[in-house]
Amino acid sequence: MKIKAFLAAAVLAFLAISPTRAAGPSCYSGSAPGTPRALGANRDRLIADLARRKSTDACELWSALNKAERYVFLMDTAYLADKSSRLYPPGVNKETALDHATALYSINGPKAGQGIDKSGRGGEDYNRIYLGFDALASCVMRDAAEANPHRDPDYNSWRKSDDGKGPHKPFNAREMIVWSSWTDDDMRNSLGPQFHHWSRDADLDRGGIDKRLGVCGVSDPSLTEATVAFDFYHNSDPLGDYAGRGGYGWEIVDKHVAGGGAWGYTPAGCAPTLPVNEDMTGGGTFNGLGTVMEGGACAAAPIAIPPAPARLTAEGAARVERSLESLTRDAGL
After folding, report:
1. Gap between the Cα atoms of 159 and 285, Å rounded
2. Measured between alpha carbons, how far is residue 65 from residues 42, 57, 196, 282 in Å?
3. What are the residues whose beta carbons fall under 8 Å from the beta carbon of 127, sequence distance 6 or more?
4. How far, in Å, CA of 26 to CA of 23, rounded?
5. Contact 225, 171 (CB under 8 A)
6. 179, 82 in Cβ contact below 8 A?
7. What is d(CA 5, CA 20) in angstroms, rounded to the nearest whole number?
8. Could you tell me if 246 and 255 are in contact, meaning their C-beta atoms sit under 8 angstroms apart?
9. Is residue 6 helix, strand or coil?
10. From CA 133, how far away is CA 220, in angstroms rounded?
11. Per-residue model confidence as pLDDT tens digits over 81-97
């Protein structure tokens, strides 16, 4: 273990002085690698964070989400915990971006009629989550070359987005993980995870962010909009069917993320509950939203308490068990 720690320290020291990277301080200057967390543990602390922001607890929040909202959260956290989102260079550490996520500001589910094709599977304000990150993750996101200089396939795969429309306003930087190209001979508009952020802390645009759904009033310069582009229109609903591109969104995630999306997740300490609905476009509920503009001021979006049938009662226990068994089969577990 001492030899491994010595080698890791040596790699970080080299990166800090390497002339091959762009001018400026290394992301790893003063960095102390930690211990990677389990996917479920990272999800637990993020759901608890959003619940706190909405003045509730993790169990109440999770039980109030529809299936699409749950799957949006699960798909984005799955790829941020994948090897393609590792923050350190090979030979140093296997911590991922999700290990260094510090806040969950909003879960934005789908809405009927949204998207370029009006299918309800898209729209710039839907099918995405908003996260905050620590200094290391923010630095690597802004310049990921240092995290994997020789493009080892088992480490960071972030690159600048090739989407011609650029970052979603008010962000001014956009990265992606390429899962596939739109066509075999056209590497533009690549499909896969997409995340929008600011290229510098000083670029934080408070006025602009107040116009985005779920993050009104957020003043965190590490704020990141995370989603997945599943088709040419960059529709991103994990319950949507993307025939010809690999199936349903969640199935596509499973093909590209080691271990899959772990779709049967329930926050630790919470009884399993059915989602409030299983509608592909969310069924009109938005209990995962963070803060929204109301009457000229930012306020936490309220939670609509789910009806009794969605609770784990004696009568509903069998339904929940059948639902969880179905999720397990769908995920191939």
Report:
1. 34
2. 18, 13, 24, 9
3. 68, 72, 108, 109, 110, 121, 227, 235, 236, 237, 238
4. 9
5. yes
6. no
7. 24
8. yes
9. helix
10. 9
11. 999 999 999 999 999 99
Identify the sign of the CA torsion 69, 123, 139, 141.
positive
CA distances from 109 to 37, 96, 99, 226, 289 (A): 26, 24, 23, 12, 8
Residue 197 β-bridge partners: 173
The single-letter code of the amino acid at 262 is A
Question: pLDDT tens digits, residue range 186-239?
Answer: 556 789 999 999 999 999 999 999 999 999 999 999 999 999 999 989 999 999
Please give the model's pTM, rounded to 2 decimal places: 0.85
Of 42, 322, 72, 24, the closest CA to residue 193 belongs to: 72
- Tell me which amino acid residue 322 is: R
Identify which of 55, 21, 257 has the alpha carbon closest to the alpha carbon of residue 157.
257
CA distance readout (Å), 222 to 145, 204, 248: 19, 9, 31
Dihedral angle sign, alpha carbons of residues 41, 47, 53, 54? negative
State the residue for tokens 């909202």: 69
What's the rounded Cα separation, in Å, for the pair 195 and 276? Answer: 28
Contact 95, 87 (CB under 8 A): yes
Which two tokens mark 32?
A: 């102390």
User: Which single residue is written with the structure tokens 């191939």?
Assistant: 332
Residue tagged 């550490």 (tokens): 93
- The answer to whether 8 touches 33, Cβ cutoff 8 Å, is yes
Mention every residue, 6+ apart, whose C-beta is less than 8 A from residue 268.
Answer: 40, 41, 44
Place of tokens 């934080």: 204
Q: At 262, phi and psi to the nearest 5?
A: 50, 60
